[in-house]
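Q: Predict the bound structure with zinc ion.
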Amino acid sequence: MRRLVLVLPVFAVLVSFGIVSCGGFFLEYPMRRSSVYVAVWLKNCSRISWLPRQVSGRYDGASAHDNIKQAAAGLVSKRSSYGTAPGGYVNLDRRMLRAMWVLVKQGYTFRVTSMAGGSHSRSSLHYAGLAFDVDYINGVKVGYGNPYWRKFMARCRELGATETFGPEDRGHSAHIHAAWPR
Ligand SMILES: [Zn+2]
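A: Predicted complex:
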């Protein structure tokens, strides 16, 4: 019994240090963490899923899943080379990555469909590593009927996003777009 009393707090500390996915102290916010540290945390967090291909269906090494793996490995993230996408590579913006962490801490689960990859509008902030798209929030597809998207978008703006689009905007009936300024 006495041993259990000793072991339990140790286990709790291990869990809170991130042995368990999405771990970390409840009040630990990522503002002092490096991009790589935050990217590793995000990649390992089961409350965020990452589309492993482009929304268009392509596999070009620049999916959201590819991009977060690249960032977590300390590499620049790949851009797509079709449509208006410029090809090449870009670093994912640290403010954007930190915002995703805080969104998880605020209780959201979501799926990211695109970051630096994919083909977007010409000179899209995606190509600068400054934007991410989300098509599921808390297990519900983004659309007018999703009860979470307005608040999710508002949270993104509170976390520094200056460009947000959602179901009320043209071309965004089924996903949220959030982008940070250059
Ligand atoms: Zn977008």
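A: The longest strand covers residues 131-137.
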